[in-house]
Amino acid sequence: MNKAQLIQELNFKAVRSSGAGGQHVNKVSTKIDLSFSLKDSNGLTATEKERIYRKIGHRLTKDGVLQMQCDETRSQHRNKELAIARFLTLMEDALKVKKKRRKTKPSRSSIEKRLKQKKKNAQKKTNRGKPQID
C-alpha cells in the first residue's frame, strides 16, 4: 500500500455542515466529503484491492467508491486531516491478515483434573440425597 499515492487519489468536497451553530454554519463550508475509487486506484495491488473489497465491501457504493464524511471541527483543514487519518486507518485495518487459528490438544493433566472435579461434584450431589437404608 502506497500511502502517498492513495492520498493523491482522494477526492475532497467541502459542504455546509449540519446542526446548530448559528450564522457561522450557514456561511462556511467546513464539512468534508471524502471519496475514493477502489477500482481506479493505482496505489494498491490487485490482491490488496480484493482483500479490501472483502473486508469493507459493504461500505462501498455500486461503482466501488468509498465515501466518508467529517464535520467534527469548525475548521475545514482540520476536518480534512481527520478524514485522511480515518481513511488510512481503515485501509490499514482492512489489509491486516488474521492469524490462522491452530487447534490445540488439552494436556493429560488438565483432562485428569477435569475428570476428578466431575467425580467430586457427582459425589457431592449424591450425598445430598436421602440416605438409603438396606
Instruction: Note the main sheet.
Output: 3 strands, antiparallel
Physical arrangement of strands within the biggest beta sheet: 1-2-3
Provide a count of the helices: 5
Following the backbone from N to C, one meets helices and strands in this order, namely HEHEHEHH
Alpha-carbon distance between the two ends: 80 Å
Look at the helices and sheets and give the structural class: alpha+beta
Family: Belongs to the prokaryotic/mitochondrial release factor family.
Organism: Zobellia uliginosa
Protein name: Ribosome-associated protein
InterPro entries: Pep_chain_release_fac_I, Pep_chain_release_fac_I_sf
Question: What does it look like?
Answer:
The protein is an alpha+beta fold. 48% of the residues lie in helices and 13% in strands. It has five helices and three strands. It has a three-stranded antiparallel sheet with strand order 1-2-3. The protein is elongated and about 95 Å long. The model has no long low-confidence stretch (mean pLDDT 90).
